[in-house]
Structure formats: C-alpha cells, structure tokens
Write a structure and sequence with these properties.
InterPro entries: ATP-grasp, ATP_grasp_subdomain_1, PreATP-grasp_dom_sf, PRibGlycinamid_synth_ATP-grasp, PRibGlycinamide_synth, PRibGlycinamide_synth_C-dom, PRibGlycinamide_synth_C_sf, PRibGlycinamide_synth_N. It catalyses: 5-phospho-beta-D-ribosylamine + glycine + ATP = N(1)-(5-phospho-beta-D-ribosyl)glycinamide + ADP + phosphate + H(+). Belongs to the GARS family. By secondary structure, the chain is an alpha+beta fold. It is built from 12 helices and 21 strands. Strand 12 and strand 13 form a beta hairpin. The protein starts with 12 loop residues before the first strand and ends in an 8-residue tail after the last strand.
Amino acid sequence: MNEINNTNHKSHTRILIIGSGGREHAIGWKFAEDFKAKEQDLELFFIPGNAGTAQLGTNVSITSIESMKDFAKENHIDLTFVGPEAELSVGIVDTFQKENLNVFGPHKAAAQLEASKAFAKDFMDKYGVKTAKYKNFQGPMLAIDYLKNQEYPIVVKASGLAAGKGVIICQDFEEAKQAVLDIMEDKTFGDAGNEVVIEEYLEGFEASILSFFNGKKIVPFVSAKDHKKIGEGETGLNTGGMGVIAPNPLFTDEHFKLFEEEIMEPTKCGLIKEGLDFAGVIFFGLMITTKGVYLLEYNLRMGDPETQTTLPLLENDLFDVVNKAIKGENFELNFKNQHACCVVMVSGGYPGNYEKGYEVRGLENVSCPTFIAGANLSGDKIVTSGGRVINVVGLGDSLEQAREIAYENITKINFDYEFYRKDIGIV
C-alpha cells in the first residue's frame, strides 16, 4: 500500500515533508538546493503537497497519521519533516518515533505549547519567561466579570489552535465582553475557544525568531518581521501573513541579547525540566516595548511565510543540521549577510470569502525563489486553490534591493482577482 519504488533505496536519500503550503514548498526547495550543491541524489515526497512541491518530488494523497507512518516505513524514508501544527498537536511525532522512524518535530506533549495558549502562558509564568500579565478562563461569566476592572486596550485570545486568527485586541469593556461571548459561546474559532486567555496589551513592534532545538540547546535563526494585516499600512483584517522581511531592521543586537537571556534560555531550561525536550522547531513571536522584549506566543513549527523568507538565507545544509538535532549533537546556524523580502500574492476577498480555480500564469519568467502556497495542478495548468497563493522572495545586499527584486518579479505573475500589498518591507 502506498509503496512508490524501493529499488536501490540505499543509493539515495529519501525525505518526506508533511504539509501543503508555501512553507513545505520552501523546505523541500532548501533540501533540493543543498543536495544539488553536494551532488548527491535526493528523492522528495510530500503529503499532500501542492503544485509547487510536485515540481520537486512526488505528492502523495493520504490523510491519516497511521497511513503516513506506514508510507514512511514502506518507502524507507530517511527523514520526515512535519510542517503544520495540526498533525503535531495530535501526536504524529509520537506515532513515528514508536516505529523508530527519523522525524523532526515536537512530540504531542511539547506541541501543547502551541496548541494551548493557556498551557503556554502557565509554562512561561512558571519558568520566568518574560511575557504579558494574563489570566485563563474556562467559562464566559468569570471572564466577563474579570474584564470589568481591567485597563484597556486588552487582548482576548482563544486558547486552542485557530490558524493564527484567534486573537482580538479590544478597546473597551463592551468590545472585550463581546469577544469573550463570540469565542466561548458562539464558537467563532470552534473548539479553540473552549478556554480563553485574557492578557495585558503591549505597545511596541513585533519580531519573529525561528529556532532549532536539539533537546539540549536552542539555536536561533536570523530575526524576521511579519506583515499580518490585509491592507497597506497594517490596516484591515488579520491574515496568515501578507509578507515578511529578514533580518528585522528594528530588532537590534541589544534586543537579541535580551531575547536570549529573558526568553530563549528560560524556555530551554523549562523544557528540559518538564521533560519536554525534543528535536524540532521553536518559533518565538515577540513584542518589543519600551520596557523590554516580551514573548507573545510559541509556535512549535516553522512559521509561514517566515520559513520562505529565512531558508534562502540559511547557509547550512538543512539535512545535516536536522539530523544533528535529532541525534542531540551540537550545531551552529549561519546566515548569508543579505536581506530577504517575501511578498505574498493572495486571492481577491481573502481573508474573507474568495473564489478558487483561476490559472496562475508567468511563473516561468520569475528569477528569484518563488513558493506556491495555495495552488494545485489541473492537467498541465497551475490553478489557485487557497487564499494565500504565491510567495515571491527577493534577496539582496540591502533591504531596498531585496524589495525591488521581489516586486519586480511579482509583476511577472498573474491570476484573476490577484492582490498583494505594495508596502512589504517599508519600516
């Protein structure tokens, strides 16, 4: 079942990537570039993949974690790299590890740091990770009662996984009360709203830092800046990300030092003390204020589109680094002395209702890394299948040059009702 081809499987490396977005296309692209550079054979598989990953390897249409595990066993996969949070939160890593399969990602217990904001905030509090003051609630009435005596604005969060959309900034009591009722009673974010976290509002600018963890040491990536809102000037609805630049020009060496001392190191100590050590990714979502650097949230997987922006800057061989992490060995991460600017092309109407099935044209004319996020193959055509469709990544010796390259290339790509922000990277 699901067996591809086991002939001479020892003669080349086989990697399986779980996921279907721009992040997974970028991870596959990085593996492919590294293997090409060292002139070694690589076979890539993606579950389920998309039109971009189909150009790198084989897309496989299976859905259950058991069948993914069977596929990895039957096809002698050397490494499985898990992209999305959903599979991590239900224990794909535990399932693979029981079969002694090489897999990169947190086990189910550690994945709670993303799957439950309440769990994460309690962990931060316990281990002295610098974060906003907060309180968790499992029912709406106590939460609303608590809100009566708070300072505003205030932040109301659905505790569970809400695809990056379960956070509401409320300007007054009435807004906050409505947010609690929407999340907990009307289930705006489904079961993610069974518990809410209410926390103080922090004023400042955000930064994102990806990192690899080997169970003993956290090794950070270069910093990044995400652009979350649909509209230019950071206006309108929140999205999964309209663009990213790296490194973040506002995030100084002093900020990095504070992050390491007050967030990264206490996180590492807490993970080890709680027995939550693993080989995988920790993504730190940060807020930088006049009072210092605060942790907003953990993600326990590669960010999207931060992955698409930072991986083209990574000088290390990704397969080598990931294997060292899995074995608990030491490694350093090195990044090019360059800037990256990722601009996201989306379907008109996103993040609300949008239509799919439009042909994507002009990809063959692009001269910079380009990753497909939401498009599938229909015959020999690539057609839109999601809200975020294409990630175009400009690389340059300055941020201005990286922006220029990204925007110059994005004009070569067309699909009906396309939209993208023109101000990604303007800080």
